[in-house]
Amino acid sequence: MKTSIATVSVPGTLREKLEAIASAGFDGVEIFEQDFITDAGSPRDVGAMIRDHGLEITLFQPFRDFEGLPGALRTKAFDRARRKFDVMNELGTDTVLFCSSGHPEALGGIDRAAADFAELGEIAAAQGIRVGYEALAWGRHVNDHRDAWEIVRRADHPNIGLIVDSFHTLARGIDPETLRRIPGDRIFFVQLADAPRIKMDLLYLSRHFRSMPGEGDLDVTAFTRAVMATGYAGPISLEIFNDQFRGGMPRNVARDGYRSLLALMDDVRRAEPEVVADLPAFPPRATVDRVSFIEFASQGQDAEALAALLQSLGFTKVGRHTVKRLTLWQQGEIRILINAEPGDLAASIYRAHGTSIYDIGLSVGSAADTIGRARALGADPFAQPLSPSQTDIPAIRGLGGSVLHFLDDSAALSDVWATEFTPVARPGPGVGLTRVDHIAQTMTYDEMLSWSLFYTSLFDMKTAPMVDVTDPDGLVRSQALSAPGGAFRITLNGAESHRTFAGAFLADSFGAPVQHVALATDDIFATAAALAETGFASLPLPANYYADLAARFDIDPEVLARMQALNILYDRDAGGAFFQLYSQPFAGGMFLEILQRDAGYDGYGAPNAAFRIAAQKRLQRGKAMPAR
Ligand SMILES: O=C(O)c1ccc(O)c(O)c1
Ligand SMILES: [Mg+2]
């Protein structure tokens, strides 16, 4: 299988694009004509530069408005084609994409278009060129791959074939199974792109909102399975027009593309093993059973303040690391570490970001397989010097330079707590916190797709629809990802403005990755009552919020009064009820959440987010204002 990506998908100058594409691991590139024209090199020089990067030119594109034109326009279109074939020969590529015409004077008619392509086929054959015809979803007369195929079939020329693009088929709601009846050797090229399912003009959606396969809502896997089942053996190429990617870092965009393409082809292979050839073998998506630990980087007085907060939340300091300045706090199955070791990554994280959660330990089916898949998909492995008594726990880099460690039931990894920590106390009674429900990460809006791809390509996790959260000073987009049964949940919060609570946290902490952690209890009223005794300060909510709850839901007035007294928030959906309680912000905008969810409630209390943010900001402003 040959992997490819269109130059239009990656930001930068042509040279920057090629460097990024080659280093991500692609075999080839589609040259988007504009990227070639803007370069100062001759076609031969550009071709040589591409090959010097170890890349093949898989396609030259696009040639627009060719078929169905009358008179002089038709003559000019053929002349244009000849000139472009010459350029292609100098560049060193033999396949070109002709997209269906949008020309206002194009006449339509399947036989007219077929006749144009039959004639073009002769010219192409003489110049050693293969022409692939693609139906644009907004083409004037041809906007469906089935019609494009009929034109190619009737043109009946060996140098004229079909090009299919998942966007054009899936965004129009055309059943991808219809591809299975096209002979694979008549398909000259395959382009892949995903997109969000939003009602929008298709041209606009395609030119601005395409995304890497797996980042959107289209069934690119079904499309690719159908194409591969035809026997198609040419390049598989990404063609992604996306506004955010245009402003991104070339290397990151190319790396994400390669990651998404490999994950996709692996899915196709697992569904239809006989249709995918020469894809390197790597393990399936990892199953995450739970969050095994959460590690803070903190030192000195900040670490003491954090320890006091954990104590007020009912955690017990149960262990001290045998060699490092690392303490282990526990309650239920929740383990929290505070790392004050001077030489560790934790120390540099603390210096750069202040107290922050920089390391998350996940309990997975197989730590070795998880690392195997992560490496295959281009994740960065993480390691730091260990003392001889320390266990080498497999790890990779996560969001914002943070770390993800993987633990499993293997002999070496299952007893790290016993072997590396000296017990200092038995866990106390606690306040009823049982497990980590979810981890909330904050990033810029432009990074959201990249991080959702990171998690969904590596772990068995699904994305929930994006929701808008209003902050008094801007909008925050929030997307949840969850493993089956909610065993592991992450919410990604994309801030567009530094003035939002999320954006200010991001700016003030120089990009620290975790803004809050939600801990589960089976009885939030009992937990809140216990917390009232420990000196824990919850986030106060206004009476208006509770009046609104009373209006929206049928809550027993006595229960509602207790919720108000304890600052408990509420939500309900068809699956059940959901209760939340927040800590006051600490360490520059971090906070903790305590929640109780019915088994059937799969959300995160999104309707409450705006009230939570307003309350947090009110508290911050109150603290910032001098006492009078
Ligand atoms: O948006 C376009 O014009 C365009 C051009 C070439 C393609 O292959 C495509 O899918 C879209
Ligand atoms: Mg295309």
From TrEMBL:
Keywords: Dioxygenase, Lyase, Metal-binding, Oxidoreductase, Pyruvate. Pathway: Aromatic compound metabolism; 3,4-dihydroxybenzoate biosynthesis. Residues 290-409, 435-584 form the VOC domain. Mg(2+) binds at residues 438, 516, 593. GO terms for biological process: 3,4-dihydroxybenzoate biosynthetic process. It catalyses: 3-dehydroshikimate = 3,4-dihydroxybenzoate + H2O. SUPFAM superfamilies: Glyoxalase/Bleomycin resistance protein/Dihydroxybiphenyl dioxygenase, Xylose isomerase-like. Coiled coil: none annotated. Its cofactor is a divalent metal cation. InterPro entries: DSD, Glyas_Bleomycin-R_OHBP_Dase, Glyas_Fos-R_dOase_dom, IolE/XylAMocC-like, VOC_core, Xyl_isomerase-like_sf, Xyl_isomerase-like_TIM-brl. Pfam families: AP_endonuc_2, Glyoxalase, Glyoxalase_5. Its EC number is 4.2.1.118. A divalent metal cation binds at residues 134, 165, 191, 239. GO terms for molecular function: 3-dehydroshikimate dehydratase activity; dioxygenase activity; metal ion binding. Belongs to the bacterial two-domain DSD family. Catalyzes the conversion of 3-dehydroshikimate to protocatechuate (3,4-dihydroxybenzoate), a common intermediate of quinate and shikimate degradation pathways. This is 3-dehydroshikimate dehydratase.
